[in-house]
Amino acid sequence: MLLKSSKSLTTPFLFLFVSLHQTFSHPTVTNHTWQEAFEVLGIAWNPDGTLNRTILIPMVDPTPDADSEPTPIALSQDIYLSPYSKAYVRLYIPVDPPRDRKLPLIIYFHGGDFVLYSASTAIFHNFCNDIASQFPAVVVSVEYRLAPENRLPAAYDDALNGVAWVRDQALGKGGSDPWMEYADFSRVFLLGSSAGGNIAYHVALRVLDFDIRPLQIKGLLLNQAYFGGLKRTQSEIRLIDDPYVPLYINDVLWSLALPKNVNRDHEFCNPISGGTYLGRVFRLPKVYIKGDFGDPLVDRSVLLAQYLQSCGVPVYYRFNPGGGHGNELGNRTAAQQLYDDMRWFVNDLHSNLNSGDVLSSLKSEDQSSDHASY
C-alpha cells in the first residue's frame, strides 16, 4: 500500500524539551510564555515528552447504516490501513448515491494546526458529511499522526499513504471496498482546511514523484491553508490578538509541528521560501484558494495565490471581507458559500469563480479596510 520512491520519506520522532517560561518577542508582538499558550490550547507536557491533550473535543463514530439514529445525511465507515498501526481513513458516500454516473472523489485532510483533532472530530465529520451529500461525492478523510510526537513530515507521509490506499482501491489490490465503486478515479481532488490545506498542497507536490495511475488528481482545494514565515505579514500584525489564532499561539504551534532546529521559513511552513519541491510547482493542477480578511493567515493565502499564478498554475479564489479562521465550521451561510464554490470548481463551472490576477482583483474590490494593502 505504501508509495515508494527513490526519495527518502523518513519520519522524525523528535520531542521538544523547552522551558515553559521561554518567551517570544517581536517588535509588534507582546511577550507570552509557553505555559500561557499551552493553557489556552488545553495541552500539557507528559514526562516522556508527549502531549496530554486535555481539552474535551466532541468525537463521533461513523454512520455506516442509513437506519442509524439520528438519520444521517451521508454514510460513513472507518477503514484501517494496516493491522500494525492506528492509521485509518473515514470513507463517506451519499445515503442514496446515483447509479447512472460516477462521483468525484475528494481526499480530505482535517485542520488542527498539526497538533490537535482527528478525522473523527465532530466538526470535521459533519463537514465531510455535507460534502458527500451536497456535491454529491465520495469523500476519503485521512487520519494522520499529530505533532510534536510525530513532527512534520509525518502528516505528509500519512496523507501519501491515504492516497496510496485510494490508488490500490482503484487497482483492486487486496479487494476494493464496495463503496469505492461509486468513485470516479479520474476525477480526484485534494481538499484541506487550515493545516489540512497545508497538507493537501505538500502532498500534491510530493505525489508527483510516484506512479498513482489510474488516479488523476484534477485539482486542489485550499481552505484557509495554514502557512507561515519568519517575516510577519500585515494581516498577522493587524490581527495580532485574534481570538482564534493569536500570533503567539501560532508561533508555539509551529514550534511544535516543524522539525527540530528549523525556523518558520522552512518549506513545510513557508511554501514560497524555497526547498525541495519549489521547482515543480508549475506542474500542479488547478487550485482553488479561499481566505477571509478577518483571519490573520489570509495574507499567506494571497501570497500563495500570487505565486502560483506567476508559475502558470490556474488559480481560482475567493477572499471574503470579515470572517475569521474556521468560520465555515460554525456559520452555515459561510459554509454554504464554500460548498458552492468547491462544487463549481470540481464540476468545472469556473465562470462562477474569481480567476484574474489576484492582487489587481483585491485592489479593484477596494477592500483596504479589511486587509493589508498589497
UniProtKB/TrEMBL annotation:
<keyword id="KW-0732">Signal</keyword>
<feature type="domain" description="Alpha/beta hydrolase fold-3">
    <location>
        <begin position="106"/>
        <end position="326"/>
    </location>
</feature>
<protein>
    <submittedName>
        <fullName>Arylacetamide deacetylase</fullName>
        <ecNumber>3.1.1.1</ecNumber>
    </submittedName>
</protein>
<dbReference type="Pfam" id="PF07859">
    <property type="entry name" value="Abhydrolase_3"/>
</dbReference>
<dbReference type="InterPro" id="IPR029058">
    <property type="entry name" value="AB_hydrolase_fold"/>
</dbReference>
<dbReference type="GO" id="GO:0106435">
    <property type="term" value="F:carboxylesterase activity"/>
</dbReference>
<feature type="signal peptide">
    <location>
        <begin position="1"/>
        <end position="25"/>
    </location>
</feature>
<keyword id="KW-0378">Hydrolase</keyword>
<comment type="similarity">
    <text>Belongs to the 'GDXG' lipolytic enzyme family.</text>
</comment>
<dbReference type="InterPro" id="IPR050466">
    <property type="entry name" value="Carboxylest/Gibb_receptor"/>
</dbReference>
<dbReference type="InterPro" id="IPR013094">
    <property type="entry name" value="AB_hydrolase_3"/>
</dbReference>
